[in-house]
Amino acid sequence: MEISCVAQTEDNLGEGVIWNPGEQSLYWVDAYGPAVHRLRHAGGDIRSWTLPEVIGSLVFTSAGGIVAGLQSGFCRLSLDPVAVEPVTNPQPGPDVIFNDGKCDRRGRYLVGTMDRNFTPGAGKLWRLDADWSTHMLDDGITISNGLGWSPDNKTMYFADTRALVVYAYDYDIETGDVANKRTFFRTDDMVGRVDGATVDRDGNYWCAMIHDGSICCFDPNGRLDRRIELPVKHPTMCSFGGPNLDTLYVVTSRRFLDDDGLREQPLAGSLFAITGTGAVGLPEPYFAGE
Fold first, then answer.
1. What is the pLDDT of residues 119-134, one digit of tens each?
2. What is the fold, at CATH topology level, of the domain defined by 2-275?
3. Is 195 assigned a catalytic role?
């Protein structure tokens, strides 16, 4: 196994890392930059775009468009030039942030919200359908994170970082509805807390353990399978990418470090690539709307 730093973008809060197979490129965001970054697989060139407002995640449409969760809610996003077109905001508020988000395998875009002041229970989980209608799936969340689905689409995972818990739900892939919320695993006895996550083709749940400097892999029964140490303390999300979906990309944060911490961790806020894990990811679906 090898861990390498592939982009020193000095992100305040790296989020939303996602592989675009059509472009053979990796995208991720700096939530509070705010910015979008792109890494080309061929050649390794990096490009960044500064945004006008906070961004939590983005997904792609099959036609090449981008849909994102920003301060304005669900938006269409263009990069050349940068333009934000707000479409719908189911939870408006000056302190509401759209955080972790990704599409299910029918192309619905799920995004969790939170209060930027970490108000307990202020976050909700929203689903954006292809017709741009929004539906609340859960509430009472403090920090929304850790979205993912089992390979058979029957289980959805969703974390509340501050509550130290990852939940599992029964997921109806035909309707996008959830039921039977239960605890998948808790992190009370761990140093880190679950931030962004992904699921591999064998159903294992890979998650960034913020404050612990590690990526942890939990098996489909919620048991810790392995832990990978990183050279920085605050990884914030991981996702599989590359032509064969066998590289685990990890985004990180500088936000939680003081000046001494930044000197000790010069690679904080960088993008890392982990190869040789033996795991293979699942393709990230396109948003079904236009």
1. 999 999 999 999 999 9
2. Neuraminidase (2.120.10)
3. yes
